[in-house]
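Recap quiz, item 2
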Amino acid sequence: MTNEAAFIAAMRVLASHPGARGLADDCAILEFGGETLVLTHDMMVAGTHFLRGQDPADVAWKLVASNISDLAAKGAEPLGVLLGYQLGSGDARFADGLGAALAHYGAPLLGGDTVGGSGGRRALGLTAIGRATHRPVPSRAGARAGDGVWITGALGGAMIGLEALQSGDDGAGSAAYRRPVARLVEGIALAPQVTAMMDVSDGLLLDALRMARASGAAIAIDSAAIPLACPDSRRDEALRWGDDYELLFTLPEGTLPVIDASRIGTVRDALQGTVLLDGLPLDPAAGLGYEHG
Amino acid sequence: MTNEAAFIAAMRVLASHPGARGLADDCAILEFGGETLVLTHDMMVAGTHFLRGQDPADVAWKLVASNISDLAAKGAEPLGVLLGYQLGSGDARFADGLGAALAHYGAPLLGGDTVGGSGGRRALGLTAIGRATHRPVPSRAGARAGDGVWITGALGGAMIGLEALQSGDDGAGSAAYRRPVARLVEGIALAPQVTAMMDVSDGLLLDALRMARASGAAIAIDSAAIPLACPDSRRDEALRWGDDYELLFTLPEGTLPVIDASRIGTVRDALQGTVLLDGLPLDPAAGLGYEHG
């Protein structure tokens, strides 16, 4: 077991509160005062989650979008955020991007902490607090055999955008990587319909595997049905690439989503806890997506 | 203006929501579902907030205590925490200390994020979520001329404890530094009584200055009245040392606190926004306490 896997296993032992959902969902869920809070905290580290030297305004935008995407996957509307910020170069640009992203989602900055800079891999954290618009709050664990498997938008855009940025294009060509947009409106609209929902920030196949395991079902995906935002020749890569922030969800057979989305597969009851790609079970050890390390 | 001051000024512009309290309080306050949420996020960085090489179990304990202390200062009971963790050496020890601290305060782990290690100054973050037990929630801004100024416990213990730890004592002699205890019970008991309350994590004089500025009043402190957990010869240092996690609060003249505490001064209306130590106004530029940097 890696250090990270061992640490997360230790955290699971501590996270016995039902609202923690076994640390196996996008967010924690907390009943409070007759309503339901939805809580998430994501970190980003220089060199892993963003490029060293990347425009700090884009880093701030992505930090907000990645957390709001977790709220979106639970159908929650944002109430506000707390920022944990390690000072570095471009702090004023970071503040600009943070302001733009928070304004985009209507999420106020409520508080946080600022600490000294890092000689090494600078770490940034954001906590997003939301209000569930539908209860029960959608989880990853609700996919049932026979459900349709759906996805919003298209995959591969962040992959193309990163390559464009690495080639010096810091404009429209790299926007999908630099300025991802969380599917907040879509998540809220879908919450009453879905049997399971999550975001696909770490890559479709890896995240689908998580849904399959949480649900005790198999997720069978038809790769040709997946809309792409990259050349068709790169389809296999796009299914394994992170940072697209689309929503993966399941609906009862015969139900159509209330927003634009694409049917990409079906939930099966054989081979529970696996992903079937074009009928073949995937090997989880084969690198299905982006494992944060 | 330092980079940090400029960044915090930019954050204040974004934090226009009333619940952010202008980023000038221990916590954010959010009305939700007919109750009141109390939210805080504190970070700790290796080499600044803890010693490189310090037992990770103690680091985890302090991370929890420092956040719970913020809840205590608002009279809030903890509902849970979200952890932002950067992997490093001693992850299993960190998990042990985290579990011990969360059990001590009855605060469940609800979620968070784990990211790769840092080559430099590792950063850890914790978000604590609490429920206000009394409304209005005590703020730093309520001190009024004529109020008594009070403090729980004694100061200087963390200073002595750090020195003991640096000398190799990782037992009882350094416990005040390694394993601070947030005044959660006291804060909840005091919340209905106080006109203002905050914790003194950055040193009494600096934190009293913050209360004076937030309240638009002067805080006059009688240094001889301050209980010490260190030799009397080090009184001046103890007033400027952080990490003691006591509560500083004000009560209407004639009111006695419901818990053990010491009266150390009086709120004045002359020289608003200053701290008077034994009758003399302090120079804020003279190093009143621990400024995180």
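The longest strand of chain A covers residues 35-45.
The two ends of chain A are 13 Å apart (CA to CA).
End of item.
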